[in-house]
Amino acid sequence: MIAKLIMNISKLNVGKVPILPLILTLLAFLIRIWRIEEPNALVFDEYYYAQAAYCYVKNLTDPNWVQPPLGKEIISIGIFIFGYNPFGWRIMSVIFGTLTITLIYLIANEVFHKPFISFSSALILTFDPFHFIHSRVALLDIFLTFFILLGFYTYIKHLKQIVKIKSLLWLILSSIAFGCALATKWPALFVIIAIILIPHFGRLIKSEEGKITISKPLINKPLGIIMLIVIPTVIYMLTYIPHFIIGKSLDYWYFIHKETLIFHLTLKDTHPYASPPWQWLLPLHRLPYYLDPYTGAEITTLLNPMIVWIGLPSVIVLLINSFKRDMIQLTVPFGFLFLYLPWFLSPRMTFLYYLLPADPFLILAASWLLEIIWGEKGIYRLITISCLTMVIVIFIIFYPRISAL
Fold first, then answer.
1. Which of 123, 392, 400, 401 is the most buried (most CB within 10 A)?
2. Which residues does residue 288 pair with via DSSP β-bridges, in sequence order?
3. What digits encode the pLDDT tens for the residues 206-243?
4. Cα separation of 384 and 84, whole Å?
5. pLDDT tens digit sequence for 186-205
6. DSSP-assigned letters across all residues of 17-29
7. Whether the model pTM is above 0.85
8. Residue 163 is inside which H or E element, if any?
9. How far apart are the C-alpha atoms of 248 and 242, rounded to whole Å?
């Protein structure tokens, strides 16, 4: 009955827009916007990014030059409209975080063509404490996640296009999205590498006029690779226009990038909340963001253990299942692995929130496995429903600790 309900709702449209992702997106927005002004204080690294964003509003020098400017420029839009207050510096995170719900639905639909996977992916991300927290604070990682997902969605559309000009246009859009990701945080480089490698480890099967063919996408040709390098570089440079407007030179641009690289490669400082990547996927591993000593209100970021327990083996199985076979499905395990494994090579301390861009790919893989279990019917459908229910129950249980209630 639930499967039929999801199927029926997934077929409903408002004009040409499917109604199911709209419902889930609206739900995600409402639970994220509620009490967004709490706590009425700078939370964790908001201390750096909210203040840096305010400098963009006032045409001042960005004091946080160790990170690219785009994420802070986006935060500055909210501050410009609503003022320098918690609502002003967090509202853009709410908007971009909410839009990732729509994107994961669309990606699941393009990759798997299963309404259940699209629905469960969006549902799980909506009630994911990890994603929820970062959709409500002025940190850069939610913008990085959005642009990476947008890049993957447009990249998948590029792979699936039969008409060459449309394929080219989707690749241009994908390159722009990845350029925006790179201009938010440098780890987007890992994703660009993954995008270039995917065509070499999977087959692209297309159907045209009833004929099944194995095709080579544009990204697998020199022009495609050049586009994926040149366009992100141009986008990256464009985000520094506010710096040049206030009189900064290319020498200054070179200096801050040299110092940033040195900073990331040689930083030996420790932090009580730092943790190595192998700990991030442990049950209930957490990172405190905020604690009010008077009221006890807190914000503690953590992964939903259900997502990890189901998602991690799913990534491995999906990788084996799609390797050298299905290039489209290969984007999911590659997305997770290239956003997680490189952190094991990091010469500096790392933090749990670095995993946020990889989180949606873990959820996509988990939803893929849940759909397989669902298809077995009988007791297996009860198991699937129980898993999805537990995702929501865990969110409700931890809600006071992730929302400063």
1. 123
2. 300
3. 444 444 344 556 565 677 778 888 999 999 999 999 99
4. 45
5. 999 999 999 888 877 766 65
6. EEHHHHHHHHHHH
7. yes
8. none
9. 9
